[in-house]
Amino acid sequence: MLDVSSLRVAYGESEVLHGLDFSVAPGEIVAVMGRNGMGKTTLMKSLMGVIPTRSGHVRMNGDEITRLKSHQRVARGVAYVPQGRQIFSTMTVEENVETGLTVTGERSVPGEIYEMFPVLLEMKNRRGGNLSGGQQQQLAIARALAAKPKVLLLDEPTEGIQPSIIREMGRTLRRIRDERGLSIVVSEQVLSFALDVADRVLVIENGEFAFEGPREGLDEDRVAKFLSV
């Protein structure tokens, strides 16, 4: 579904990602783990077209999308939940989700979105800025799903969220994958969450992949060492 080859990304003359190669199968959840500053967010932004690629290729279902702008990638089926959620705080919950409908041509939020996030139905007329961190994260995911993506990118979704909500989010992501057949790429520092949701774990270290392995039988101690400061 998503295929990345020899991906190099730089800020000015400073190269941050050094020729990354990985792929994500249809219906697969892949966790990209690593400490702060290792390149996780840069990878997510480059996959979404927020920052340009220096060289390499990003393909979606076999089609080259490397040079496409962000809105064009959304139309091709890529959705992005950025770090910090970045919802529209003065808009209502419903208005926030409706912003994700622009590429689908639909006018109203599909009932299945509210079925997946019932708390958003209860609060659909409340301003986004009045929601808790966990509720805002659900809102950001719902907004992304409104675009009916094939690939969902989530950057640090557990940041600033209490453990009980993190567990619920894990269940939700697996349900999204199972019911919609999405491929999901999630960047993360919380190992327990990654092990809960991911089929496969990649560890990024200084802009390169230092480890890759399936969740089953994963050497947790080895991965944890990469995450320790």
Concise summary:
The chain is α/β, with parallel strands linked by helices and 229 residues long. The chain is built from 9 helices and 10 strands. The protein is globular, with a radius of gyration of 17 Å.
Descriptive key words:
229 residues; alpha/beta; Rossmann fold; 4-stranded antiparallel sheet; 6-stranded mixed sheet
Topology summary:
Blueprint: E1 2-11, E2 14-24, E3 29-33, H1 40-48, E4 55-60, E5 63-64, H2 70-76, E6 78-81, H3 93-98, H4 111-116, H5 118-122, H6 133-145, E7 151-155, H7 163-180, E8 183-188, H8 191-197, E9 200-205, E10 208-214, H9 220-227
Parallel strand pairs: 3-8, 3-9, 6-7, 7-8
Antiparallel strand pairs: 1-2, 1-4, 4-5, 9-10
The DSSP helix count reads 9
Radius of gyration: 17 Å
Tell me the CATH architecture. Answer: 3-Layer(aba) Sandwich
* Number of DSSP-assigned strands: 10
Query: And the CATH topology?
Result: Rossmann fold
Beta percentage is 25-35%
Which ranges are low-confidence, i.e. pLDDT below 50, for 5 or more consecutive residues?
A: none
> Reading side by side through the largest sheet, how are the strands ordered?
6-7-8-3-9-10
* Residue-averaged pLDDT: 91
- Domains counted in the coordinates: how many? 1
Look at the helices and sheets and give the structural class: alpha/beta
Q: Name the CATH class.
A: Alpha Beta
| CATH homologous superfamily descriptor | P-loop containing nucleotide triphosphate hydrolases
- SSE pattern: EEEHEEHEHHHHEHEHEEH
Distance between the termini: 34 Å
The percent of residues in helical segments reads 25-40%
- Largest sheet features: 6 strands, mixed
- What's the overall geometry? globular
